[in-house]
Design a protein that fits this description.
The structure is a single chain. 48% of the residues lie in helices and 13% in strands. The chain is α/β, with parallel strands linked by helices and 360 residues long. The radius of gyration is 23 Å and the shape is globular. The structure holds adenine. Adenine (ADE) binds next to α7.
Amino acid sequence: MSIIADDNDFKNTCTAEKKNPVVKPEAADLDKNFENCIRPKSFDTYIGQSALKDTLKITIQAAKKREVPLDHLLFYGPPGLGKTTLAGVIAQEMGVDIKITSAPALERPRDIIGILMSLQGGEILFIDEIHRLNKVAEEILYPAMEDFYLDMTTGKSQTVKTLRVPLPKFTLIGATTKAGELSGPLRDRFGIIHRLEFYTNEELAQIIKRTAGILNIEIDEEGALAIARRSRGTPRIANRLVKRVSDYAIVKHNGKITKDIANKSLDILKIDEFGLDTTDRNLLKLIIEKYDGGPVGIETIAAAIGEDVRTIEDVCEPFLLQAGLLQRTPRGRKVSPATYRHLGYRTQNEASQQTLFNNY
Ligand code: ADE
């Protein structure tokens, strides 16, 4: 069965809440566990994305009043902005179960058919990275989304028969970091399509304080804002940083996160005041020092800094583009004057001299 996790993962799975102290989960489990543990479960605790939340509240109320499932929804935007979390909130607010999977797990026709046939009426099916769905799976989804049935074929060549299998009415929530890669017919089958936006520092500070509360860590307003400023507008990053900073606060201080403690700890982690990490800075420095500010092709950048193209496109670029530190042009990526300033080159000339030196 290709279901990665179901609704139970949203409920009471915090290791901290478990009574058995001898259970030792793997590191990756701990990370997942932490993420699940701090996921908000309702609109009241889901911070930010207020325009989207307002729309969804109305849609949910209307669906409940009419006693019909929600329209299919597509969320797109950079990773870590809470697309999965929002799907969980919607399920909770609708009072229905959610099954969570991702497109790469739906490789064979029987994977998607199995999941669709396991759905109960009204349930939500969440497919992450939906732009990676293969053609066959996509074509199975079309009638399932539109008219709630599956066409199954049995037999071979001349004896082949098509069996129409009805499905319960369900809601598909798709999530993608690349809406542009979704095929037109698939995109057209979603009733609501919404982009998730980067969070403001004030919203991130609220999320950070909430997470610190769940972790039982004391934090003041300035400490929360200091972490927020280096979180690249992204709750997933903010929550990871709270954990790292709280480790530092426990070991080096009295356990309380203040502005000073947050800044010291993030400096040690080499996360700068824009939230850029070593990979981001290497990428930008490469364009400046080796390619005179660009443009340069993404494959060249990836090979030079030892990252794969997808990681650069999905993880590094969205924030660098939005922060104005990187530009996409038809001839490749280039940096802006702000990038030179941010990385401490006084002038573009100075960077060119560095280029000459590096190429010598
Ligand atoms: N954790 C991740 N996303 C969140 C959000 N939008 N609000 C509160 N906590 C979160």
